[in-house]
Amino acid sequence: MSTTVQPPAPGKKVNRIGLEPVAYRGGKTTLCAGCGHNAITERIIDAFYDLGVEPTDVVKLSGIGCSSKSPAYFLGSAHGFNSVHGRMPSVSTGAVVANRKMIAIGVSGDGDTGAIGVGQFVHLMRRNLPMIYIIEDNGCYGLTKGQFSPTADLGSKQKSGVINDLPPIDTCTLAIELGASFVARSFSGDPKQLKAILKAAISHRGTCMIDVLSPCVTFNDHEGSTKSYQYAKDHEEPVADMDYVPFFEEISVDYNPGTTTAVTLHDGSKLLLTKLNEQYNPTDKSAALSLLRETSTRGEFATGILYLEPDKQDFVDLLGLVDEPLAFLDESKLRPGRAALQEIMESFR
Amino acid sequence: MPETDLLAPEAPSAARNQRVVNNFAIQVATVNGSGSQTANLVLLRSIFQMGVPVSGKNMFPSNIAGLPTWYTIRASANGYLGRKKEVDFLIAMNPETAREDVLTLAPGAAVVFDEPLKLADLRKDLVFYPVPFDKLVTGLTTDAKLRRPVRNMLYDGVLSRLLSIDMAQMEHAIRKQLGRKQKAIDLNLGALKIGYDYAAANLPKQDPFVIEPMDKTQGMILIEGNAAAAIGCMMAGVTVVGWYPITPSSSLCESLIDYLKKYRRDETTGKATYAVIQAEDEIAALGMVIGAGWMGARAMTSTAGPGISLMSEFTGLGYYAEVPAVIFDVQRAGPSTGLPTRTGQQDVLSTAFLSHGDTKHPLLLPASVNECYTMAMDAFDVAERLQTPVFVLTDLDLGMNTWMSDPFQYPTKPFDRGKRLDADTLKRLGSFGRYRDVDGDGIPYRTVPGDGMPAFFTRGSGHNELAQYSERADDYAKNLDRLDRKFETARTLVPKPEVDLVDGGRVGLIAYGTTHWAIVESRDQLRAEHGFTTSYLRLRAYPFSEEVAAFIDACDRVYVVEQNRDGQMASLLKLDSTLERFAKIRSIRHYIGLPIDGRSVTTELLRQEGR
Prior knowledge:
Chain A has 349 residues and is an alpha/beta fold. Chain A contains 12 helices and 13 strands. In chain A, the strands form 3 sheets. Chain A has an 8-stranded mixed β-sheet, sandwiched between helices. Chain A has a 3-stranded antiparallel β-sheet with strand order 10-12-11. The radius of gyration of chain A is 21 Å and the shape is globular. The mean pLDDT of chain A is 90. Chain B has 4 domains: 209 residues, 3-Layer(aba) Sandwich (Pyruvate-ferredoxin Oxidoreductase, domain 3), CATH 3.40.920.10; 183 residues, Rossmann fold; 71 residues, no CATH class; 112 residues, 3-Layer(aba) Sandwich (Rossmann fold), CATH 3.40.50.920. Chain B has a 7-stranded mixed β-sheet, with helices on both faces. In chain B, a hairpin with an 8-residue loop joins strand 3 and strand 4. Chain B is globular and about 85 Å long. The chains are: A alpha/beta (349), B alpha/beta (611). Chains A and B meet through strand 2, helix 3, helix 5, helix 11 and helix 12 of A and strand 9, helix 7, helix 9, helix 11 and strand 17 of B.
């Protein structure tokens, strides 16, 4: 967890802690060319680079599926854990409480989250565990060749012609209802918005649930799919234009005060929202839920930060843990003395 | 109750005219939720305080209130702590079961019963003591709500008189049990005296059973195995606990929470040096443990059979990704929901090989409350040393029943955090390969997030020595072979068996866990009643260390005694045996949901031996 601030080599592009972009990259992707997930990986790299987060201060977690492979493709010098299908939330919960100093980012898919993992997802949101939880949402199971997932829209068509006849689960609605303190939706093909959301998420403490529509170019990017590039581009409805100013930068941009709101995140960073819809307030839970319902009725995706509760107590605070990571406490802190054992023994005499 | 006990009852403990001192079993038959637990524990504790070895076993239904429950207290001058098959002294309080409870007693037994139940005509060969409980309790309190629990204290008073249990000890036990609740203490002391006085005036002693003071419990404690394990986990420095309520394991984590709250707060800030998370299910409970273990914390969970089934997938991940985890399995009778409030040793094979693919896991097998304590500490050391999930198998009998024990000793061994890479080691090795066997013991070096050492990517998919994704045949096979080598190393790290190889004892007994207590008693019976000397090995862990093979070699044949239908440990031993040893292994099994007793072992051993 050392902060390696090195003087930048002349002529090289470095961030505020002196690291080059390559320090934020991982292994070469093995996903299909054009896969939305690769674009998300790029934005994750950008966001961590831009904010100058030390890669070794991050842990990457995932379940199983195409999306869950992607933590191997960014922040190569960070520890990663590709766990079991649908169970990334519980592994993350154990990991985060064991070392509260690490920044946890989890990548899941719509099947991994909405089907096999929905039970654990629900309880992660409920606990408001401090972590970033990304769903790379393509409405299908890519790694097992295109079956519908629970986020596939009613009436959407599989490549083979099969029609989905069950309504989708809206993971954002679920997350807001259940207690996540930062809920956003974006589109893998919208780099500007996605990067701003990710940067704000890195600054927020609490569960940051980000559902990113990410078309599957192999199995679900055709006419008739509501998770195709074309559909997403046509039906994306941003709730606000956003910009993000980290705590270490002065807000110097002159925003139109009539339409801009600044939300302060826990570390002092500012999220600047220029509203497209004057009535929309991301800290209003009911408004967020109504917006999701209304847009989905119209077949549209509301994108942006849908819900934000900047000061909500997170799970680590709730547990009242010591500041030092539990994982690094030594025997002197962990094994009570002889007097304690004696007192306990006395209670059983 | 003995209806479920399909084995024939034993002859009465003694003839009616002979005094039976400190060697009999008292059974209280009541309904659950009636508040009898205080009265039962006071009775147990009073006998204990008189210096008489004693054990208490609760047989309760999977229900909160209104179903039959039996509590058995065994006084044993010889210190036998196992179940005694026959009941000598029955307290019949439950109208539902009273008839059957009386009909299944052995001749010569005594019965204290609630007078309106009119049980005295049922048998001519028993001693009956009618007590009008309702009438006696009305004089004690006008509060109807208090009558039911206090009613039970009346039988303690009656027994104090009939069995010569010192009233002063009873009083002391009530105060100990009820703490500072003065009103409750006064009420119970009143009931105790009314019961005693009633017996003194109306019930002349006709049975042979009596408690006399001894000096065999000095300095000892009375404790349940789950509490003992909880103390062990705390002393082992557990920092992350993920758990899901399930009988009979819940009280392990609940006790642990109490102890952690009290003894594991930072001295200056008062903040917690632990995190306990009640998970959404057992899958998540183990997931949290694996996540925390991967992060470098000492993490554990506690469960029973159905939870073990749910933990299967994560256990395989822990094995293959090499993440330490400690899993307590307080076994109960299965399969499926089975008999959730009854005991058994039925998860031996399922835990040893839990999960898909080639997997095997170390098992620690405590037999006593003291071992629940020490093996909790061993389990964390072994898990971190081997970087793998380790199971501690106890059972309902050990976990939830009350056992006497010497007080637990303060640990002398420091934590073993296993092979963690540091700068010096990295320099010596030249480079880091997460799954490279540099020492030849199958155990690689490990790094954890935030330790400043090189990172790696953890996955349950195929990987090479450098933790890179690999589907190569040689990488895969090499890794599996190394894991096998690691398991061989485990043989030398787990607790060794306890061996009593006796001259002339060519027939060997092998047992583990709570079955031990039946073996102790059975060996004495075999020697005293049949001149039959046996040798004995008590398994304390799997994989088996070399002493096990040596013991089988030294015997003509061995009987593996255990509490399951299929002889699971016998099978595990056979898998590990040469043909010669395999042929020597026989099996004695007990699976009625109640703890195994010595007499059943003796009877079955003699039958198989043709004696």
